[in-house]
Task: structure prediction
Amino acid sequence: MPGADPAKDVDISVRYGQLTIKAKRAERKEEGTSSEFRYDSFYRSIPLPVGAKEDAIEATYSDGILTVTVPVSESETPEKHIEIKKPAGNRHN
Result:
């Protein structure tokens, strides 16, 4: 993302287990009687892995490179089995 101002041009959010990065960059160049306008945009949505610690996500921007760090819990969530119940009054086994 070279040339982007991370404070104004980049938005990082997390919602429902999805990390979303949006960026836009506009540049206007004027020389004499002519002007040039360039606009770039970027959008990426990434599913987070199981165990991702959404409250601990950090982002840094240096020399045009955006780095997003997502800590992941070492322990796995145990598998949970769901009991199948029969509705009351059901005569079928």
Remarks:
- The mean pLDDT is 86.
